[in-house]
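Changelog-adjacent note: as of this version, every example in the card shows the full chain rather than a window. The one below runs 369 residues end to end.
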Amino acid sequence: MAIKPGLGRKTSNKNPPILSHEFVIQNHADIISCVAMVFVVGLMNESTAAFASAFISLHHNVSGEDPSREQPYGKAYTYMAGIKDYCAIFFYTLTCIIMHAIIQEFVLDKISKKLHLSKFKLARFNESGQLVAFYLLSFVWGAHVLLKEGYLGQVAQLWEGFPDHPMSFLHKFYFVVQLAYYLHMLPELYFQKIKTKEEQQPKIVHSISGFTLIVLAYTLSFQRLALVLLTLHYFSELLSHVFQLIGVFDREERLAKLRVVNNGVFFLIRFATSVIGVLTLYYGIGGVRSLLALGGLIALQGYLVFSFITEQLRAKREAKKEAKREAKLALQTKKPAKTAKDKVKRKKESDLPEADQTQSPSPVKQKLK
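Full-length structure tokens:
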């Protein structure tokens, strides 16, 4: 006779069917790691090395020499943008998905389990945690390239020799990783089980707009200007998401001073971006292409400022509504307390005899008697 499971016991399917949606979502990092390893193993075979190197190595070099007897240290290679870069972008998109899963599983999930956050705060914590890691890496990387190439000391290098602006290895690899990261946001919507339109729309807009703007700057030879502006932008975004992470753990009242700093840095970065754009595109380079790029840059800064102000006003309205709601709940919780006391008093009076429940005479009437 077969033994039936106890009543109310839920059978949990820990091993979902292979190639099912749940299986792919649970094991997507391992699956993509195997796909990436195919390209790495392809480098070890002579017949497939040329094909695999198109996805892993950087191409379209225009100068540079390998070490030789005459030049023991060789000559640094410089690169231009080209069609093979999209093969590298595909491979490093896979790498970004793997790194996203590693940060989520080994850093963010372990921290969130100890905090016992609500569903809303958990989603904000995971999003800001991932973006803080990306913005911190991008800012440090961009600042390093700026200092190494000397763009900060000699601002004229942003437009001198345009459009012949070859890139160093770190400079070009920076743009490849940037494009790969923005592209990996789209499959992450599936891996993170984001189904609602309200949650999908801002992430899709962020991914497509970031990828499109960087591709335009990269292919139109504005790599030096884009490097400076992206480094400034990422510094502002890094502060914003760091303060957002602090808001997950701390109260809103204590974040007032931090928000003032965040707002000041935001507007300062927008102003600096506009000034550098005008100096480089209008006074430095000139031409129809530069003027169109300048118009798009100014329009983008205006949109960012408008979105920032709108978000601040919306947050204030929501804070007022939340304060009113909490005050209303506080009044509602006080009323039942009073009724509870009345019930106790009425119960005591009901226990007395009927003669004692009548209204007792006042002290004045007792004296007259």
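Structural remarks: DSSP finds twelve helices and two strands in the chain.
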